């Protein structure tokens, strides 16, 4: 008996040929029929076992127990290390009995061969999601528990049980599996939601395998794998301000790993905006898709309606009607993937309170910056307490007006404010250029309502009468200039 490639070869006996099973059966019948005639001949016939491993003939043994002892011995040794595993010989070992005249066999050689070449594996169930193998488990129940626990990350156990029970009922009632879940709108109150279905984004399959016992996963380990996901190669487009280090960090890669994925670049390579780099990113094995319906009360935001008015100055506006929000009840179907809303559709909505628009009136009236040439009295009535001319040994440049019905100061004519602030003996002072050679000055003001560069209209409020600066009391000091020369205001006031 000698070894060929991966098998033991047992040459046929030279004196007596092997008999096929059909011939042996016929011979037995013949032996039974002829009695003593073949008694001496039949004493040399023995039942032997042809040994096949994975379909390949290995040799002959005298009895099946020779092979069984080797197998049981290997399983017993492995069982000491893997007590909880369901162990089996990985190879397909087959014994074929045959009656042979004067058989030749070598039990020891076959036993040694089997001892060296047979491997012990664990019976396992492979969990496959889509085209990805997640891992191997000691039972289908364990693999199914991994899937169930993964779903329970996104929905509670009671809800999942109800959904699965409803599916079973539909299946028994021959409802198509891809049929839309029935709407629960009639049962939903405002503020409530209901789960319609919990599914996975990819097909899940289970198959029996024989694997290395060390690769068997617990349910907890399998769940961690699902949660972690699997590495997928992606493309990253370089954005402004990014460098190799920041890109590697974004995808939890070392710089060396990023460079290995991109052989054309080196650590000191200057990457360009818009350049694509190979990266790897953890992607979920599968998405848990939760479909639900919900009814929510939502606000209908009021709109702002703009109206124009020629009565208001351009730049001025006023609210003629305050806005108020409305309310509505919206019935949604919502799809949630791995805890994040991926789709939301409105099934129905009902307005329970209409919104009221806010109405804003904006002025369109443009104030001419050029004066009319005629000045309007700058106070609300009052009297002249001092004229232009010499007074107390000094020249008094303006007209003092006191005792008005209210202290509002208005622009004497259209124009542009060229000064608005505090100035020495004038106190709070406003100067208006009427853009026609005329200029007016308003002094001793308690407060100022305009700013430099502002265009004002004749009669527009510009400040409040006061007694700031070098003043004898509450009054307005009013000056008029024409082409830079001081004028008597009474010559222009109407």
From TrEMBL:
SUPFAM superfamilies in UniProt: Duplicated hybrid motif, LysM domain
Region: Disordered, residue numbers: 166-186
Name of the protein in its database record: Metalloendopeptidase
Annotated signal peptide: none
LysM domain span: 234-279
Source lineage: Bacteria, Bacillati, Bacillota, Bacilli, Bacillales
Single GO term (MF): metalloendopeptidase activity
The G5 domain, residue ranges: 286-366
Keywords carried by this UniProt record: Signal
Organism: Ornithinibacillus bavariensis
PROSITE patterns: G5, LYSM
